[in-house]
Specification:
199 residues, alpha+beta, 5-stranded mixed barrel, two-stranded antiparallel ribbon, 12 strands
């Protein structure tokens, strides 16, 4: 059991010293910097302006937007305030997946489960878990609503849809009739941004 705990700590430590990515930070005052770094587990941003430079740490107080290059993939992030949220945890750095009259964001969670018993041929048996939480906001708003796993069939989602898509009766009808897949919130927001005119 002690060995398994130590291995878990090792993997957690290793994930925190992973290779740095090319990043660009846009500040709230309109300035920006480029360098190498990563997003820390507490949603703060670590950056070195050159590979041998001292590290700098930034957070939502000064940063508005972040772009990270993961090899061939580029992802944009924004700090947003959780609607009805309280305390430091109400500010989140979210991955932008759609922008328009309504913006959609996500946070992907992943981890490894280390069972108390069981071995594989290569050592300890582990299970990888992952989940996605979606957030939505009106364009230019600092506030986001937590859509949880994005269940478009839920009563809660239909209530939120009336607030954000209330000027598009056709979309509200499609949501009510379950036109979209249960967890395909991305298609719902895409439909609104492409086919519904904001009054």
């Amino acid at each position: 059991m002690k060995k398994m705990f130590l291995i878990g700590v090792f993997f957690l430590f290793f994930s925190n010293i992973e290779a740095q990515n090319s990043i660009s930070i846009s500040f709230r005052d309109g300035s920006s910097i480029n360098g190498y770094g990563r997003i820390k587990t507490n949603d703060r941003i670590l950056i070195r302006r050159s590979k041998n430079a001292d590290k700098e740490i930034y957070d939502y107080k000064t940063v508005r937007r972040l772009r990270v290059n993961y090899g061939d993939t580029t992802k944009d992030y924004e700090y947003k305030v959780l609607k009805d949220g309280r305390g430091p945890g109400s500010v989140k750095l979210l991955h932008i997946i759609q922008e328009g009259n309504v913006d959609l964001y996500q946070v992907q969670h992943s981890g490894m489960i280390y069972p108390s018993t069981g071995f594989s041929n290569t050592g300890f048996a582990t299970t990888t878990t992952s989940s996605t939480t979606y957030y939505m906001s009106e364009s230019e708003s600092d506030l986001v609503v937590n859509l949880r796993i994005g269940n478009t069939y839920s009563r809660r989602f239909r209530k939120i849809a009336k607030e954000y898509f209330g000027d598009c009766e056709e979309l509200l009808k499609k949501i009510k009739l379950k036109h979209f897949e249960r967890y395909d919130v991305e298609s719902v927001v895409k439909y609104y941004n492409e086919f519904c005119d904001k009054q």
